[in-house]
Design goal:
This protein is of the alpha/beta class and about 350 residues long. It has eleven helices and 14 strands.
Length: about 350
């Protein structure tokens, strides 16, 4: 009888070990594995840099001890550093349940022959829905109305024409970026009756939902009552929406960002809100996280903020667990990974 293969479920308080183990057992014969568990403290303890990797939870010492003799690791946040790799020669697969394996040293993993996989698209639905929620909250001033009601006020003044909200139906909404999230948002907006414009130099117009049209960014900014950002943060897109771009948007328009904080000049955004050029903004991501006490957005009017939660849902956690478990199943069957971050480490 073949000995069970040691596998480590290094979950946290979002992608739970229970979910990882359940998904692994649903994907493969439970008897194939000798399951070990390590619970990491995120999100109750913020992630951060561990040695040379980013956005990691836990310590190198914890992982080295837990990986002793382990060949497969399923995790979201565990730090795969050069030191961990050197101390764990049995490791063959490090399956990361997030859209990018920034907590793994890919060069060192490749040198060690360890395959690193990731889970693109795991939170596309959640982020698209959160985008729509922020959009509606900002356009209809829902948080302000809620706060006033809880405080004992009856703000019927929000019915005044200059104060009352906007509708998606009949509006032109511009989406900057049309990846998995942007396309989902576009389809939902079309269904709600919006005219949807998309600025993305890399998108094939044929892949856009029916009713969405690709345009250049200047046309999108000038034509849209709502602009929602869905671009990756690169050297090309950093600071994409600055003072000039905000000024190019129609007076009384709305900006929404659930992509990356570095896409926006936040000082310019605060000025556009204080000056009344923008009606409102809804943000889930920021240039500095957590948001510092002296950040220019603090105190800006008509602003809806959430603490980088767009990708958080119970469905995302379950989906992420299933996706890494599927990679473990492929490894067990001798198949190549579906989403591998360091293909040179994978041998035929």
């Amino acid at each position: 009888m073949t000995e069970p293969i040691p596998v480590l479920a290094a979950g946290d308080h979002f992608v739970l070990n229970r979910l990882l183990v359940e998904a692994l057992h649903a994907e493969t014969d439970p008897a194939a594995w000798d399951v070990r568990e390590l619970e990491l403290p995120w999100p109750h303890v913020p992630f951060g840099r561990v040695a040379e990797v980013d956005e990691a939870s836990g310590t190198e010492e914890q992982l080295i001890e837990a990986l002793s003799g382990v060949r497969v690791c399923l995790t979201q946040m565990a730090p795969l550093t050069s030191r961990v790799l050197a101390a764990c020669p049995d490791l063959e697969l490090f399956a990361v349940s997030r859209g990018g394996p920034v907590n793994a040293n890919l060069a060192a993993a490749t040198e060690q022959g360890v395959a690193v996989t990731f889970t693109p698209g795991r939170n596309a639905e959640s982020t698209a829905e959160h985008t729509l929620g922020l959009m509606l909250a900002a356009m209809r001033r829902i948080p302000q109305a809620h706060a006033g009601t809880v405080a004992g006020r009856w703000d019927s003044g929000l019915y005044a024409y200059d104060e009352t909200g906007l509708e998606i139906a009949g509006s032109t909404v511009g989406l900057v970026g049309a990846g998995a999230i942007g396309r989902r948002v576009a389809a939902a907006l079309v269904a709600l009756g919006a005219t949807v414009l998309v600025a993305d130099p890399y998108v094939d117009p044929a892949t856009l939902p029916p009713g969405a049209r690709r345009v250049e960014l200047p046309e999108l900014l000038a034509s849209s009552s709502v602009v929602s950002l869905h671009a990756r943060l690169t050297d090309e897109t950093r600071g994409l929406i600055g003072g000039a771009e905000l000024a190019a948007m129609p007076r009384g328009s709305v900006l929404v960002n659930c992509a990356r904080g570095g896409l926006v000049d936040h000082a310019a955004l605060a000025a556009a809100l204080h000056g009344g050029h923008l009606f409102a903004a809804g943000l889930d991501v920021f240039d500095v996280e957590p948001l510092p006490a002296d950040h220019p957005l603090r105190g800006a009017p008509n602003l809806v903020l959430t603490p980088h939660l767009a990708g958080a849902s119970r469905m995302v956690a379950r989906r992420a667990a299933r996706m890494v478990a599927a990679e473990a199943g492929r490894w067990l069957r001798g198949e190549p990974p579906l989403h591998h971050a360091n293909p040179p480490a994978v041998t035929p």
